Amino acid sequence: MERYRAGKLTTPQKRLREALVEATESEWQPQVRAQVREQASTSGGMMVHVVAYFGFTASGSSDDGRERHITTPISPTYAARILQLQEAGATEEEHPVVAEAITESYFTDWGSRTNGLRADFTHVQSIEFEF
């Protein structure tokens, strides 16, 4: 380290570079992930990208289901619930919270239209969460 501080060496040798990367990833990354998850569950929410078969039920009517490609924001309330379920080991297909979140944000426009609508999704081809 003294050679680097004195300016005699400017780039770390391969072993030192690998050790620095490993130390940084082991200590820094978990903290960053925890901060991002905390922000998503308290104020920021997150985005969901999903390709699945959506079917609907509503009071007085129904709509035939079909495959949809949806990208929509999820509120911090649902983000917190989804992250808790993921930490408990649940997969996205196993819990209805994702369907509730997508229904609220995408299909009912945050509750401003289509009261009582419930969207269920099956045959999930892909699902990604983005902070």
- The neighbouring-strand order within the major sheet is 2-1-3
- Globally, the shape reads elongated
Name the average pLDDT.
78
What is the quaternary state of this protein? Answer: single chain
How is the main sheet built? 3 strands, antiparallel
| Helix content bin | 40-55%
Terminal-residue CA separation: 37 Å
Derived from helix and strand composition plus strand pairing, the structural class reads alpha+beta
Detail the poorly predicted runs: none
Radius of gyration: 22 Å
Structure description:
By secondary structure, the protein is α+β, with helices and mostly antiparallel strands. The protein has a three-stranded antiparallel beta sheet with strand order 2-1-3. The two termini are 37 Å apart. The mean pLDDT is 78.
Topology:
Elements: H1 2-6, H2 14-44, E1 46-58, E2 61-74, H3 76-87, H4 97-107, E3 118-130
Give the key terms:
3 strands; alpha+beta; elongated
Kindly summarize this structure in a few lines.
The protein has 131 residues and is of the alpha+beta class. The chain has helices spanning 2-6, 14-44, 76-87, 97-107; strands at residues 46-58, 61-74, 118-130. The chain is elongated and about 70 Å long.
